[in-house]
Amino acid sequence: MPTTAAVLETEITGTAPVIVKLGRQKRKRIKALGEGHGKLFAQVMETIEELQKSGQISATAQPIIFVVKQESKMAIFG
Questions:
Q1: C-alpha–C-alpha distance, residues 40 and 21, integer Å
Q2: Has this prediction a pTM greater than 0.70?
């Protein structure tokens, strides 16, 4: 269920946020994403570019939300 702030922003701007799930990722990739570099960051930028080219979002679209889960150390069981 969306938070009140998310609902209010959607109503004010008239646009719904874009949510992209990237699945489980290693801790190092998530850290590099937060620093603005690495393979995961490249994947995020590529995804944004594809969404813009297909017309699903405009060049000035906001907000875009990426959901990433940290891969557990015991990936054999998860």
A1: 12
A2: no
